[in-house]
Amino acid sequence: MLMYTTAPELTEAYISTVWETLPRFIRSTLLLPCPCPALAQRFHCDVTIASETFQYTGSFKFRAAYNLLSSIPHQRVVTASSGNFGQAIAYASQLLGKTCTVVMPSTSARVKIEAVQSYGGVVDLIDVQHVSRAERVAQLLHEQPDAFQAQAYDDYRVIAGNSTLGKDIFCSDTFDIVVAPVGGGGLSSGIIIARDYVQAQTEIIGAEPLLGNDAARSLKSGHLQQNAQEPQTIADGARTVSLGKLNWEIIQHGMADIIEVPDDLIIQAVRHCFRYTNLKVEPTGALTLAAMFAQPERFAGKRVCCIVSGANVDPALYAHILAQ
Amino acid sequence: MLMYTTAPELTEAYISTVWETLPRFIRSTLLLPCPCPALAQRFHCDVTIASETFQYTGSFKFRAAYNLLSSIPHQRVVTASSGNFGQAIAYASQLLGKTCTVVMPSTSARVKIEAVQSYGGVVDLIDVQHVSRAERVAQLLHEQPDAFQAQAYDDYRVIAGNSTLGKDIFCSDTFDIVVAPVGGGGLSSGIIIARDYVQAQTEIIGAEPLLGNDAARSLKSGHLQQNAQEPQTIADGARTVSLGKLNWEIIQHGMADIIEVPDDLIIQAVRHCFRYTNLKVEPTGALTLAAMFAQPERFAGKRVCCIVSGANVDPALYAHILAQ
Which of A121, A171, A268, B111 to pair with B213, CA 20 to 30 A apart? Predict the structure, then answer.
């Protein structure tokens, strides 16, 4: 039975409600069993890819964003995100008739700023040399006291929203292992509660950039660890300083292990996805496949589901990765 | 009622059998309704993409290849193809326990040669300065008189196999227009017979490279036309000299129009797919979207299904297209 001290609201009844109501507003994940013979041969195992690249706004974050915003009465939403969560919040706000402001560094890629704007979000550019994202969000909330601050991972409604990806996976087939990317822990904790909710025996293994391995260190030490600063891994969706508190509580007890992935394997995995699976994958989305490249022996003979979490990558960076 | 003088075997009963038996050996197409708000706004219409990029071997050709090879008793197969049909025939042969030889120009991209080999096909490289593909196929058939020559489009079993993509489309929703790429006519004729079989009122519009516009000229003149030589369009899947005879008979009576697409719009459509739909698409696969770019006014207010036929593109070429 699910019970978390950090979030007593995260009950089986709540998950059941989310699983019943959310799916009509989101896209089911694309399950690709045995996406390429080369992959199966290489790992001597039975791989299925669960791809969120065709989810609304191009990543799993829309599951969380829509679930979160559909459960609050506020008309105004504020969040800080230079990536997929910002786009997801912007589009969910648009669909739900809310207005939203996304705080982004002025150095953000133009394509990311335009994406938030194309979904109707107001982009608030800040010079991070002078003001931090958290400070600017606090300022905005002071100016707009009726606004709601959307958290990207440390919120039970976010985790429950993400757990619907676990529903898609566990209700489709039986797997020995599900590999999930780990940044703030929003997705991987969602997959764990989904696994526990359906009482599957599947091992959940995390895939985290070696350059920002706070979660792996936390799991090893039994205490929540932080990175000294935002890690400069190519997997920009996992540039988090530490796991959220609720995410840590769930991961600490529910995750079998975390594989630390060097950036060169992430790049190799993006290329592999292009060539052998025809998936356009962002570096963070390729973390899980890269984890399999890093420790192939762990997966031999297993039925493995590898989560590809998103596709939002700058065309110039992607071209550069392909040309390498 | 279906009746074609060129292929009396192409009956409703035969199509019914193929639609019943083939789907368990192939992947259903990926239907993406309203893949991006930008697309809908641009065309003032309701666009669905039907993507064959996750079909086995990365293109719709596998539907034809498997249907063709599963209906013949021969153990040996010979074909000439530098592209998607070769890969599809190689993989279908492997699955059906046959051996296959694919004749390819020695100048073919290494990635294409390796793809055929990875599916178990024997690649027969020829110097097209000294021997034509047809001559080499004839030589091989002389050496192996018990071998079967697989035709890429001018065969009723190929067309019926491709018609199962039409089944996926017409059985999923109602469309005013389906846009299909036109090379040898194998796919578009399959979509037409599917439309007629289910008695839908949908218009089928072809999308053909302007640089190799034999089919468009044929439809306008009412007589089968040829290109003087293999057209050097970037859409390498449509580098055909003319439609097949049976394909022409079907297209002549069943296709509403063919839009001639300049190469620059094909390139733009590949980039659009990358950025707004997260689909990795080969140039030939982007022909249909490029046709919408070429004549947007034709599609205003309509429910349109755009077929994205395949994803097999050289990484270097793709990187070059993105970087432009």
Answer: B111
